[in-house]
Design goal:
Blueprint lengths: L8 E4 L3 E10 L2 E10 L6 E9 L5 E10 L6 E8 L4 E10 L7
Antiparallel strand pairs: 1-2, 2-3, 3-6, 4-5, 4-7
Length: about 100
């Protein structure tokens, strides 16, 4: 299992830590990493990879769902085609086993 230190990027959210790397091959973009939850009751989270142009406008967005089984880090991978200049990874929403969430 990869460790957080294996990834050059880190996104800190109030309930989550996302450790990831971005790979670009032409217009093919891939983000791979580990999602760690600081809240044991969270069942899943939707991660969003956002591409920005030079002016800071959003030009591409894609997402994936991560599901947790206890406190263990979970791997994720997100792909898209984009000519964006920079990318950010965010938690779009999350839910608890009951289905409640934000």
């Amino acid at each position: 299992m990869p460790q957080p230190s294996d990834f050059p990027r880190h996104t800190a959210e109030p309930l989550f830590d996302l450790y990831w790397k971005l790979t670009r091959d032409g217009d093919r973009i891939q983000a791979d990493g580990l999602a760690l939850s600081r809240q044991p009751d969270v069942a899943q989270a939707t991660l969003q990879l956002i591409g920005f142009d030079v002016g800071g406008s959003v030009v591409d967005v894609t997402s994936t769902v991560v599901r947790w089984h206890g406190w263990f880090p979970e791997r994720f991978s997100i792909q898209l085609r984009s000519e964006a200049e920079r990318f950010e990874l965010r938690v779009l929403r999350f839910s608890y086993p009951s289905g409640a969430g934000r």
